[in-house]
Design brief:
Elements lengths: L2 H36 L15 H22 L17 H13 L1 E3 H7 L4 H13 L3 E6 L2 E6 L3
Antiparallel strand pairs: 1-3, 2-3
Helix pairs in contact: 1-2, 3-5
Length: about 150
Amino acid sequence: MNQKTIGMIIIAFSVVLFGAVLMESISLQEANKLIHEDCGLPEGICPANAVLPYESLMAFTIDGFLFAFGAFIFFEKKEKAIKAKPAPSDLDEEEKKVYEMIGEKGALFQSDIVESTSIGKVKVTRILDKLEAKQLIERQRRGMTNLVKLKNE
């Protein structure tokens, strides 16, 4: 199921829920009018004479949030994946492997590159240094590791 379909389902559910809450609120107001007829309290003080029961207010509020959430999901645009450029021909095999791996994922932690290849930690650092010098990638510091991604042109 795609994102727009899920958003539409949530919006449709919230509209149906709104109708159900509205019908229930109307019936509660009618019941409260009947209760207030037998009540000896003045209109401003009698709790049965409320304009809208607090339960209905809570249900309408929740339904409003549900509708807004569905609309957000429906209208949210997914970011397009960065398509990896073909690896330049002047790269050696290990550099091509690392470059293409980064291109497939869009961005990787440097530690993930070390774990998913048979290349050692020091050698991965040197390969990334070379790729960065050729302005093909960029590294951003994230805690104890680097986030490696393709360089935007």
